[in-house]
TrEMBL record:
Gene3D superfamilies noted in UniProt: Luciferase-like domain (3.20.20.30)
Organism lineage string: Bacteria, Bacillati, Actinomycetota, Actinomycetes, Propionibacteriales
The keyword Oxidoreductase appears for this protein: yes
Matches recorded under Pfam families: Bac_luciferase
This protein's record includes keyword Oxidoreductase: yes
Ranges of residues in domain Luciferase-like: 8-275
Keywords from the UniProt entry: Oxidoreductase
Organism listed in the record: Mumia zhuanghuii
Protein's name according to its UniProt entry: TIGR03557 family F420-dependent LLM class oxidoreductase
InterPro entries with a match to the protein in the record: F420-G6PD/mer, F420_G6P_DH-rel, Luciferase-like_dom, Luciferase-like_sf
Length: 322
């Protein structure tokens, strides 16, 4: 089992994100994963820096911390050739520490380029083509490609790492899990659904399985739940809603009925290690082996959260996994 930390680029400015990654390495995390968005989910978040710029800065300020996107959509806002170049450069800068997390995206971020918002089946087909292009460019040399959705003409990535970055594919359902097995090196999910992991394994997937564990640390349980409600209540809407709404104003409306008590039920709120283990156990039991700890608690207690993980939570998680 590996334990990572979620860098919430919608909730913190880019300089703070880089500082959090450095602190995560010092606290003993194995890797960090940064969201790749154009818009925040909610107006209360107020940030959304460019993920790959932050990853380059993190690579320069850390030595052994793994880096990942969680996740990049290579089908609309970015052409897959550009994603391949960004990933290759990040892998070079981090000396091989980068993992490319990809998915079929959210309307929130992709509609900005004016291409409409395709159905999920079309997005999966687009993602398949995109992954073919990225894999091809990672092999070196000049390449062209003519597909239903993407074209590539005499393209070559000149700066490639010694080993291509691993590609982890996000899945919210069984079809995407099959795609992860066929074209990816691992699986990424945000919910502890056994059917996703089972579909991935049945389709031949045997790579790492990443999942985000929703926590909100604070010595005050009420403060933890209130902070999570302020910035993370969108997560309770479910992936189908998250993928379809176009702007923060829509998420504000869609989550108006989410209560603080709902956040308590979904998140590990407060300082109690046992409660945090209870939430993490859902993902371990489902078969995930790369746990990405998310902290939606008050920002001023982030340092205390890192210390909590280092001294209390991580040792207990390792005991559970073994």
């Amino acid at each position: 089992m590996r334990i990572g930390f979620k860098l919430m680029a919608e909730s913190f400015d880019p300089l703070t994100i880089v500082d959090q990654a450095v602190a995560a390495e010092e606290a003993g995390f194995d890797f960090v994963e940064v969201s790749d968005h154009f818009h925040p989910w909610l107006y209360s978040q107020q940030h959304s820096g460019f993920a790959f710029s932050m990853l380059g800065a993190i690579a320069a300020r850390t030595t052994h911390l793994g880096l990942a996107t969680g996740v990049t959509c290579p089908i609309m806002r970015y052409h897959p050739a550009i994603v391949a170049q960004m990933a290759a450069t990040t892998a070079v800068l981090s000396r091989g520490r980068f993992t490319l997390g990809v998915g079929s995206g959210e309307n929130l971020n992709e509609h900005i380029v004016g291409g409409g918002w395709p159905s999920v089946s079309v997005r999966h087909d687009m993602l398949s083509e995109a992954l073919e292009i990225i894999h091809t460019l990672f092999t070196g040399g000049y390449h062209s490609y003519s597909g239903q959705y993407f074209d590539l003409e005499d393209a070559r990535i000149f700066d490639l790492p010694d080993t291509p970055p691993k590609i982890v594919v996000a899945a919210g359902g069984e079809e995407a899990a099959k795609l992860a097995a066929e074209l990816g090196d691992g699986l990424f999910a945000t919910e502890p659904k056994a059917e996703i992991v089972d579909a991935y394994a049945t389709a031949g997937g045997n790579g790492p399985r990443y999942a985000e564990v929703p926590l909100a640390y604070s010595l005050d349980i009420d403060a933890a739940a209130e902070a999570a409600h302020r910035t993370m209540r969108f997560g309770l809407a479910g992936w189908k809603v998250q993928a379809e709404l176009p702007n923060p104003v829509n998420f504000e409306a869609a989550t108006a009925s989410v209560r603080i008590e709902d956040m308590r039920a979904a998140f590990g709120c407060g300082p109690d290690t046992e409660r945090h283990l209870e939430v993490a156990q859902r993902f371990l039991d489902t078969g995930f082996d790369n746990l990405v700890l998310m902290n939606a608690g008050p920002p001023e207690e982030m340092g205390a959260f890192f210390e909590h993980v280092r001294t209390s939570l991580r040792p207990r998680l390792e005991d559970l996994a073994s």
